[in-house]
Amino acid sequence: MSTLKNLWQKKRWIFWLLIVALLCVPPMLKILGIYKIKALYLRYACNIMMYATLAGSLNVINGYSGQTCLGQAGFFAIGAYTCAILSTRLGVSFWVLLPLCGLASGLIGLLVSLPTLRLQGIYLSIVTLGASEIIRIIAQTASITGGAMGIKGIPYPWLFGLDAFRPEYYYFIFLVLGILFLFCTSRILGSRVGRAWISIREDQVAAKSLGVRTSFYKSLNFVYGAFWAGVIGCAYAPFVNFIESSQFTTDKGFDVLAMIVIGGQGTLIGPIIGSTIVTILTESLRFLGVWRYVIYALIIIAMMWLRPQGIAGATNSILAGGKVKRKPQKGKGAKA
Amino acid sequence: MSERDNRPVLLEAQGVCKYFGGLKAVENVDMQIREGDIFGIIGPNGAGKTTFFNMCTGMYPVTKGKILFEGNDLTKLNTEEIAEKYIARTFQNIQLFRFMTVLENVKIGCHVQTHSNLFDAILHSRRYHDDEAYTTKKSLDILKRIGLYEYRDVKASNLSYGMQRKVEIARAMALDHKILLLDEPAAGMNPQETQSLMEFIKQLNADGLTIAVIEHDMKFIMNSCNRILVLNFGQKIFEGTPQEVKENREVQEAYFGKGMVAGEALK
Ligand SMILES: Nc1ncnc2c1ncn2[C@@H]1O[C@H](COP(=O)(O)OP(=O)(O)O)[C@@H](O)[C@H]1O
Ligand SMILES: [Mg+2]
């Protein structure tokens, strides 16, 4: 037992390697012709990984700095459209576009965050929701974004000459991006920057009293979250090959929000669990039509009630305790 | 001329006022805290003590007057800037990161002493490693010093009030500033805890930290402070040594009422 624990602590990378290897199995089965998994299932798996990373980027904002962003669909759209426009019009390589779309989205994130620094809670939510809607409306009307027609024929990434449009290959793009996101984010969270974000989430007044420049770190947090939403948007556009504005409605934003509310905020695993659950539910409840949203709503309400931080959310956080009342002051301090 | 007058002034208030609408929470207060002081601020509830600290740390804008630290004007600086360069503080209504462990709390206190950024963190640069080593060592050292080392992995809200106050002091100490403002550090402590806190504060002071403390516990104030400022209804009614405060009639009447509480407390 103790040797196992020891192994876990010292050789954690073995464990992660094992997981990654396992994740490589389904597409490899198909690629090597061992077992013909339906392409549809592989596409679901791609969706799960894509949304896990997108939800992860929202979790960075909502779950780690305690800001409430409702506009992740907007940042996702910026990434997707930047990729679609630059690849169809200028033929820019997908691999160049990935960081570029992230930066474009991060820049918009900065623009949204600056005027909202003084806002909190519901006001910040409204502004982010509005920004997301504005981005969608621009996409719907501007000619460069193809207006209501959208943009077709977004070229597939160059992938060592392989047929990237096949989900068993595209799978690896999402897998690598997801791993990269987790790698960078976990390192940040374990650093001074991550501690600053978390301190803002837990108690902004205390954070300020310790010299944490809350405005700067909230902005940085927003930009970082938007960056990854942009990167994932960039990977999304060629995957679906065709984008138009209705793919980026606020409903999409709420889906992603549902993932972190259900899966858990303030942990890295939470959004992955959330994405898996919501994606599987979405696919398996299709026969219910729009009624499936009722089911989501019920799950979310139950979640808020029973476990506000989500299934795998942070327990060492105000997210879990909600508004825990401070016990009344007792003792000598009370009397003058 | 006493020995104290030779020491340089650290924190100074010049005619500081704070009005909340018509309420004069702090009215024209002058104060000089000198290096090496344990400077007590007393006064009945609502006298404006916390408001005064909040102005010193930039949490409330000053209505009138000036606040200086070693000659630097703090009046226009915000909380973060003051915390970054000049003053560390604790709060009357404990403001811990209460769902986080004691160690995590103190680590956040090391923020201004470290400088690694996002890219240092992602790349695990030299600066990141240096910062983490510094932060961990410094936090554990402080916890050892304040006697909370065994509790380092306990969630802050699971500790007793007395210990939570100590965690807040530990966290503030991590800023490494010359002065520490304590707002009712002994509130909620039992007599033994108060006694040990008092000794700890004296030790900190002996090690070179200047301390300003708001406290209701008279024994605490009289035994640890070398200088005391008395506020009442936002105004400074007296300032002097503990002996002088004890003997001042006005203070006794304002602060203790005309009862025997005073005699009792001052024994
Ligand atoms: N943010 C605020 N807004 C309005 N009034 C305040 C505020 N903060 C403090 N006060 C008032 O200022 C006065 C002084 O309060 P405070 O400084 O907390 O007193 P003390 O710490 O000496 O008990 C009180 O009358 C209090 O109600
Ligand atoms: Mg007070």
Describe, in plain words, how this protein is organized in 3D.
The complex is a heterodimer of chains A (336) and B (267). Helix content of chain A is 69%, strand content 0%. Chain A starts with a helix and ends in a 15-residue tail after the last helix. Chain A is an all-alpha fold and 336 residues long. Chain A has a domain at 33-245. Chain B is an alpha/beta fold. Chain B has eleven helices and ten strands. The two termini of chain B are 28 Å apart. The chains are: A mainly alpha (336), B alpha/beta (267). At the A-B interface, helix 7, helix 8, helix 9, helix 10 and helix 14 of A face helix 2, helix 3, helix 4, helix 5 and helix 6 of B. The complex binds adenosine-5'-diphosphate and magnesium ion. Adenosine-5'-diphosphate is lined by residues 20, 23, 25, 43, 45-51 of chain B.
Briefly characterize the structure.
The complex is a heterodimer of chains A (336) and B (267). Chain A has 336 residues and is mainly α.
The coarse silhouette of chain B is: globular
Name the ligand types. Answer: adenosine-5'-diphosphate, magnesium ion
Mean pLDDT of chain B: 91
Strand content of chain A: under 5%
CATH architecture label name of the largest domain in chain B: 3-Layer(aba) Sandwich
The end-to-end distance of chain A, rounded to whole angstroms, is 56 Å
Order of helices and strands of chain B: EEEHEEHEHHHHEHEHEEHHH
What is the CATH superfamily label of the largest domain in chain B? P-loop containing nucleotide triphosphate hydrolases
Rg of chain A, Å, rounded: 21 Å
Number of strands of chain A: 0
Protein traits:
heterodimer, A: about 325 residues, mainly alpha, 14 helices, about 0% strand, disordered C terminus, B: about 270 residues, alpha/beta, Rossmann fold, 2 domains, 6-stranded mixed beta sheet, 4-stranded antiparallel beta sheet, 11 helices, 10 strands, about 25% strand, globular, binds adenosine-5'-diphosphate, binds magnesium ion
